[in-house]
């Protein structure tokens, strides 16, 4: 079975207070995207990895990242939202791809073991995602920020990437989403909405998503600890 990697990296660094593309922010001497790609060096993936980038930035990403990547990358322009970028990336994957692993550039500390576990689960079930049982009680608010509901915590998991899918399944789900106007912030939700079971694989706190300056400080510290 031929597997490919798709890395959505077309987001901006607005919440990070950085005026370039978030994926190129420095993470201890290398762009975050290069660190993220390095986590996949040992995975059984057929190159090139498809990386979605902000419009007009393919050449800049190529210069910043290609020499540091463990495998060749194809840089594809993303869309206005993550979902649009992922569909553009899926449509650019080589025809021979059976399984696609989708992993956000913004999660640079994913472990190779987690990549393997999610790929194994997707081979067995067709669709799988890393996710972490929540430890906080989650409050659902109404539009005026009054408490509306408190879902049963024992059933709640926070969504992470990597996610992995049979390519035909996730392409069909994304194309249906485009036709029917579904909007989500991850791909496993689209697969589920299109009727496919999605296996949850226990993620890790270290696999944080770098969104705010605090996340970046934390990721830098964790990376320093890894190197020590
Ligand atoms: O914004 P957020 O961090 O949740 O985005 C998750 C991932 O999706 C990031 O790696 C980001 O670069 C990517 N993204 C994208 N296209 C967009 C918005 C986000 O590829 N339009």
What does this structure look like?
The chain is α/β, with parallel strands linked by helices and 228 residues long. The protein has one domain (3-227): Spore Coat Polysaccharide Biosynthesis Protein SpsA, Chain A, CATH 3.90.550. The chain is 33% helix and 20% strand. It contains seven helices and nine strands, in the order βαβαβαβαββββααβα. The protein has helices spanning 32-38, 58-65, 82-91, 112-125, 167-180, 187-193, 213-227; strands spanning 3-8, 49-53, 73-77, 99-102, 127-133, 140-141, 147-149, 157-166, 199-202. The strands form two sheets. Strands 3-2-1-4-8-5-9 form a seven-stranded mixed beta sheet, sandwiched between helices. Strands 6-7 form a two-stranded antiparallel ribbon. Helix 3 crosses helix 5 (167-180). The chain is globular, with a radius of gyration of 17 Å. The chain starts with a strand and ends with a helix. The model has no long low-confidence stretch (mean pLDDT 97).
